[in-house]
Write a structure and sequence with these properties.
CATH class: Alpha Beta
Number of helices: 8
Shape: globular
Order of helices and strands: HHEEHEEHEHHEHHE
């Protein structure tokens, strides 16, 4: 029997992302990975992408062991060769051994959780699987930055700010080392079509060509004052001591 919840996820993902979206998102992730994320990836270690979705992060991570976790039925199709895939809940990472992971990365996921308790249990699981000195890296919308737009996506349930995320991380034993309250833009494109959370949609009007798209992304990433104006998503890193 088909799991209706998994079929719902598949329908929602395919509605949001067409082929042109995937090309633009790929350009975004190439640049974002180089500018912000690459330095967190241990080449000789283990990296886990929590709620990996289309595997945009984990496929770019050069690590000895790469793990993707998601309930997306298309996960195996998106994962590159050599990436281990697990269909399990974030608050029950039983297939992953304790203290076996060096970096947990998650993008635009915690806002989809159903309660603060589920978030704390998810972070507890992340703390369990991370080695001492390991890092959790979180990219997600910041309710303090975007206000009511936070709920422009049907599946956004849990309100989270940079401050409440730091509090939750501390509750389970993490020590925050980086908090950027406003980094990536957030929203709906001018045509009204919902785009992926991880795409800087405010820049969508400049995406007339791949070259212009790439140039605008590079400029945005390197001009920090622009983050304070357009940024709606936060980037938070924390270490397990």
């Amino acid at each position: 029997m088909t799991d209706p919840s998994r079929e719902h996820l598949k329908k929602m993902y395919r509605h949001r992302f067409d082929d042109d979206d995937r090309l633009r998102i790929g350009t975004f992730w190439d640049l974002f990975f180089q500018e912000f994320l690459k330095g967190y990836v241990p080449r000789d270690g283990t990296v886990l992408d929590l709620a990996a979705g289309s595997c945009d992060f984990i496929n770019r991570a050069s690590a000895a062991r790469r793990i993707a976790v998601d309930l997306n039925p298309d996960l195996e199709r998106f994962a590159d060769e050599g990436v281990e895939t697990y269909a399990c809940r974030s608050d029950d990472l039983a297939p992953i051994g304790s203290e076996t992971v060096d970096l947990v990365f998650t993008s635009n996921f915690f806002e989809h959780l159903s309660s603060p308790e589920e978030l704390v249990e998810t972070l507890t699981q992340c703390h369990r699987i991370l080695r001492t000195g390991g890092t959790i890296l979180v990219l997600m919308p910041n309710l303090r930055a975007v206000g009511a737009k936070y709920y422009d996506y049907l599946d956004h349930k849990l309100p989270v700010t940079d401050r409440s995320l730091v509090e939750a991380l501390g509750l389970v034993g993490f020590r925050p080392t980086l908090v950027i309250p406003r980094l990536l833009p957030y929203g709906v494109n001018p045509a009204g079509r919902i785009q992926t959370d991880s795409q800087p949609t405010t820049l969508g009007r400049f995406m007339a060509s791949p070259a212009v798209h790439k140039m605008m992304l590079k400029t945005y990433f390197r001009v920090k004052p622009a983050w304070r104006v357009f940024g709606g998503q936060m980037l938070v890193a924390a270490v397990k001591d």
